[in-house]
Amino acid sequence: MKQFLEIGKVNNTHGLRGEVKLEMWCDGIDYIKQLKTVYLDDEGKKSLSLVSARPQKNIAILKFGEISTIEEAEQLKNKVVYCNRNDAHIDDNSYYLADIIGAKVVDIETQKEYGKIVDIMNYGSSDIYDIVKDKKHYLIPAIPDVVKEIDTEKQIVLIKAMKGLFDED
Questions:
Q1: Are 158 and 108 in contact (CB under 8 A)?
Q2: What is the pLDDT of residue 167?
Q3: Could you tell me which residues come within 8 angstroms of residue 161 by beta carbon, excluding any fewer than 6 positions away?
Q4: What is the rounded distance in angstroms from the CA atom of residue 169 to the CA atom of residue 154?
Q5: Which residue has the higher pLDDT, 31 or 94?
Q6: How far is residue 123's CA from residue 109's CA, in Å, rounded to a whole number?
Q7: Segment 45-82, tens digit of pLDDT
């Protein structure tokens, strides 16, 4: 499992005192507000202290202790921001999407393996898992009717395949 997880991308500066606008890739501002430190790399080597985080429409406005001018904030444009998974709490029944990338997708009834999750997309109503088997892609909706169980430790997602999701043999 990855220790450092992407929470978003800095897409612009905000004001003159070094604040930045973050396109959030996490569950939202409440998740970010738990953090005291964020990182500019996926190894936790380049850290910034998070002084404040507030919502503005569908983005977050962040203030870092080390950044106090618009010129310094400009240097963060287009940088991906990471958190240490140990610094934030998620609900017991929740999981990080990064933890199911690479997971096997298996039929809950027949144990047939459909492939591995290579990407997760979201266009509004639910997440969509991109599953690959033998170089062929299948898209399945991550809805309760289909996804029955997720085991991040064993890297297995159990599904009940609906008619038409996979080629019928």
A1: yes
A2: 66
A3: 107, 114, 140, 146
A4: 28
A5: 31
A6: 29
A7: 999 999 999 999 889 999 999 999 999 999 999 999 99
Section 41-45 average pLDDT: 93
CA angle 146, 6, 91 (to 5 degrees): 55
* Owner of token pair 């450092």: 4
The two structure tokens encoding residue 71: 């010129």
Cα pseudo-dihedral 137, 109, 100, 130, rounded to 10: 20
Residue identified by tokens 């996804």 is: 147
Q: What is the pLDDT of residue 168?
A: 56
